[in-house]
């Protein structure tokens, strides 16, 4: 980089840069990836054969948008075709939201800590993040409603919340939505919704139906186990959905990704057996860790949050030494993905030995 290189937009100055790094030497021993909230199980056999079949056609472009998948989602969710939006992961749809719905100087309200992409999307658009601290580990919906000003154009709500795993529930969410002015877009991020199938859990698709300012985002990356293929989707009312589609990268969902997602939708019974296994493991893990004295709030997701404050980095380092890679939020806590039973057993064993740092 030289001083003469053209200057990027000033709005990017405040966004953390991904610095390209040389490929790392292969990790020695077995590593347990518990830091990205991935599904620990490989894709289903039917998804793998759809992937192989589609791979043979990768000399051809996919559709500008994944029409077959959009159609399948519209049927599955019982929404009109033109309400469905797609992208390369739901983060791809966030970029569309930033481009289509946010202007420089707009205020965007969201809880913090919440999904790490929120400040990036907002700042990339030149908009202003308005971060409302969680109350305990959960969204403070009253404070969020109070933070809405005439300059607010969007509110981002992650239900259940990443990284704390907490859910506010349908009743509180409805009360909140009723307080948001109709001109403000509410993005309801339900990346983990499939892990929250309990009575009282909200269904964003029901909530959006009679609220033109509400849109829902979901993903094939978590419960559906296709994080590596990058497929996200959402539902929004046509004015918003059409604007988002205008900003979508053409052919942004590849053919392999589309076919795998279609196969996964057809195999939901099998997938939900896995989801049940993961949620059962989540409860086993939470119970074991609480018995060791760790603070573990109830989680409605495929991960646990340990609010360890200043101790979180030391505990993360201790776990890493044993091959357990978790997500450290220095000074706040650890987010630990529920892994396979073997990873979880190891985690419980290693954390037992780390109780001195607890
Ligand atoms: C709350 C939330 N939203 C969206 C995403 C992004 O998912 P995708 O893989 O669909 O881009 C994640 C991923 O961790 C997430 O935690």
Automatic annotation (TrEMBL):
PANTHER family: HISTIDINOL-PHOSPHATE AMINOTRANSFERASE, HISTIDINOL-PHOSPHATE AMINOTRANSFERASE 2
Keywords, in A-Z order: Aminotransferase, Pyridoxal phosphate, Transferase
GO biological process, alphabetically ordered: L-histidine biosynthetic process
Signal peptide: none
Enzyme class, spelled out: transferase
GO molecular function: aromatic-amino-acid transaminase activity; histidinol-phosphate transaminase activity; pyridoxal phosphate binding
Family indicated by similarity: Belongs to the class-II pyridoxal-phosphate-dependent aminotransferase family.
A Pfam family it matches: Aminotran_1_2
Cofactor names: pyridoxal 5'-phosphate
HAMAP family linked to this entry: HisC_aminotrans_2, Phe_aminotrans_2
Highest taxon of source: Bacteria
Catalysed reactions listed for this entry: an aromatic L-alpha-amino acid + 2-oxoglutarate = an aromatic oxo-acid + L-glutamate
Record gene name: pat
Residues in Aminotransferase class I/classII large domain copies: 37-348
PTM sites of type N6-(pyridoxal phosphate)lysine: 222
EC numbers on record: 2.6.1.57
Function: Aminotransferase that catalyzes the conversion of aromatic amino acids and 2-oxoglutarate into corresponding aromatic oxo acids and L-glutamate.
Subunit structure: Homodimer.
InterPro entries xrefs: Aminotrans_II_pyridoxalP_BS, Aminotransferase_I/II_large, ArAT, HisP_aminotrans, HistidinolP_aminotransfase, PyrdxlP-dep_Trfase, PyrdxlP-dep_Trfase_major, PyrdxlP-dep_Trfase_small
Organism field: Kitasatospora viridis
Protein name, per record: Aromatic amino acid aminotransferase
Keyword Metal-binding: no
